[in-house]
Design brief:
Layout (H helix, E strand, L loop, with lengths): L2 H12 L3 H10 L4 H13 L3 H17 L4 H19 L2 H16 L5 H11 L5 H18 L2 H18 L2 H16 L6 H18 L2 H17 L3 H17 L3 H15 L8 H13 L3 H8 L9 H10 L3 H15 L6 H13 L3 H14 L3 H13 L5 H15 L2 H15 L4 H18 L2 H13 L16 H11 L4 H8 L3 H15 L4 H9 L5
Length: 533
């Protein structure tokens, strides 16, 4: 088959006809273009190991011809990232990146150098270095009229600006890049996927729930255009974290659980990002044991410090929580990406009575908060640490959390207002605590709901009308609840009901969620109080 066969394969790829593309490329023989096309087919069909092998064969074939330009892209943009994301093999990934950089350096002024510059962005956490590579990539894209490179670099630049604290400017660039992807100006499905992932990453960084919701249609559109499973995994991970903040915990659990499953079939070395975000949800639900089980083996992920520290805080292990958070701050700095860590550390310092340290953190939060949700967190922290006009800080935070669509944080603010107002205005305090309890119960935030109910009792009023009804459970879940009442473990429940251990664990988790219980011990107590069926 001559070169037209490769063209047929490329056309079939563009149209999503994977079997036709594979047949065309296989008929093209042992040519690097054919291996490259087959690699793309394997990639789209989820066989990432095979895709890497075929890309290496394509690379060898192109280099045997003495070519440098496209092999530079294969090495730096594709193989370097694939080895890191699929295998977690950073040494080999680094070798391919360096090989791509050297080939780009001898290739002269060409568009391929721009893609190598873009690949270098992912290899560093230094914002100055990232921006230098992005400026070079953008210059090349504009001069050579490479729209895909231009909009990809635009999205990456938007994230860098957000991390710099220039949130409005960065989000405008991300909006423009996403619009270009939506409008068909971006030809590469891979680039379109990258742009959307960067958009949702930025939304997670600044808790921009509204923008994330408004761009989810792009994810649906992209999904209909291609089989980019990795994009689904990454986007679901970021969107799931946003949904946690937005108080849609059932949907968040679905997105994060799906993300974990999809990651394990593609970029398995990156799976920890979704796992630790799911652990964060579990901590907020008060399901600490499950959170800690999820975190085993994923403690290296930079996001893991948050659920780990929250679990220590929930148990009253304040020094452990503070040590984890301070160590993280020392390693990663105190810029905008670390905003949630600084806010949590301030909360821990308040709980430990170290108000001077907490006030320093509060001042830092105020200095870097440049969006409504982040300013709300800064205001909440200012009230928490006892900065003058405490009520004003909490009232401002309350209004901003409502505007930003963050009901969990709004309810936490109502709780703090209730505590502050209780001595002088018990009626207002009761109203705030009741409103908070309602939200916590609806979300399934067990520990916070218990705290709200306790506060109401201290005000001389009854917080809850009674426990949730077992009628919410399915027949199988009621059987599981009964066995929990007998003190059985998950393996024992699985054996008793002739189901898998994984299914037993799923049923236990569902029972805890539906009944608003924090752990197995509470479930056992609850079950003991139920009449025999």
């Amino acid at each position: 088959m001559d070169v037209d066969g490769v063209t047929v394969g490329r056309t079939a790829l563009t149209e999503g006809r994977w079997d036709d593309a594979r047949a065309a490329f296989e008929a093209a023989g042992d040519r690097p273009e054919a291996f490259d096309g087959l690699a793309e087919v394997s990639y789209r069909q989820g066989d990432y190991d095979r895709a890497i092998e075929l890309r290496e064969r394509a690379y060898a074939g192109f280099r045997a011809r003495g070519e440098t330009r496209y092999p530079a892209v294969l090495a730096a943009y594709h193989l370097a990232f694939d080895y890191a994301a699929v295998h977690g093999n950073l040494a080999t990934a680094g070798g391919w990146l360096e090989r791509g950089k050297r080939l780009a350096a001898v290739s002269g002024d060409c568009p391929e150098r721009g893609w190598v510059e873009l690949a270098c962005v992912l290899a560093t956490e230094d914002l100055d270095e990232r921006e230098r590579h992005l400026a070079a990539a953008m210059d090349i894209a504009v001069r050579f009229g490479d729209a895909d490179l231009e909009f990809d670099a635009m999205a990456y630049t938007g994230v860098c600006l957000v991390e710099r604290g220039r949130i409005d400017e960065g989000m405008r660039l991300l909006d423009e890049a996403a619009a270009a992807a939506r409008g068909g100006e971006v030809q590469s499905f891979t680039v379109a996927g990258e742009i959307l992932c960067k958009m949702l990453l930025a939304c997670e960084l600044v808790l921009d729930v509204r923008r994330a919701e408004q761009w989810t249609s792009v994810a649906d559109h992209l999904g209909r255009r291609s089989d980019l499973t990795w994009a689904s995994a990454i986007c679901r991970m970021h969107y799931g974290a946003i949904l946690v903040a937005a108080g849609r915990w059932a949907r968040a659990e679905d997105e994060l659980s799906t993300s974990v499953r999809v990651y394990r079939g593609c970029y398995r070395a990156l799976c920890s990002g979704a796992v630790v975000r799911l652990a964060e949800l579990r901590v907020r639900q008060g399901r600490l044991e499950e959170a800690e089980q999820l975190l085993v083996g994923h403690e290296h992920d930079s996001y893991a410090v948050r659920p780990l520290a929250r679990a220590h805080l929930a148990r009253g292990e304040l020094d452990l929580a503070a040590t984890l958070l301070r160590r993280h701050r020392d390693q990663h700095g105190d810029g905008l990406p670390q905003f949630p860590v600084l806010a949590l550390l301030a909360e821990v310092e308040v709980a430990a009575g170290r108000f001077d340290q907490a006030r320093e953190l509060s001042a830092r939060l105020t200095a870097i908060a440049q969006s409504t949700p982040l300013r709300a967190i800064a205001e909440f922290t200012a009230g928490l640490v006892g900065i003058p006009e405490v009520v004003t800080h909490f009232e401002t935070a309350l209004a901003s959390f409502g505007t930003a669509g963050l009901p969990f944080e709004e309810a936490r603010t109502r709780m703090e207002l209730a505590r502050v107002l209780a001595p002088a205005g018990p009626a207002v305090a009761e109203a705030e605590a009741r409103a908070a309890l309602s939200v916590f119960d609806r979300l399934g935030a067990g520990p916070d709901a218990d705290a709200a109910a306790a506060l109401l009792r201290s005000l001389g009023v009854r917080g809850r009308t009674g426990p949730k009804d077992v009628g919410a459970l399915s027949k199988r879940e009621r059987e599981v609840l009964r066995l929990l009442g007998l003190g059985l473990s998950n393996p024992e429940i699985a054996a008793r009901l002739f189901i898998s251990r994984k299914t037993a664990a799923h049923h236990v988790s569902s029972v805890l969620t539906k009944l608003g219980l924090r752990n197995r011990a509470e479930a056992a107590v609850f079950a003991a109080g139920q009449p025999e069926e």
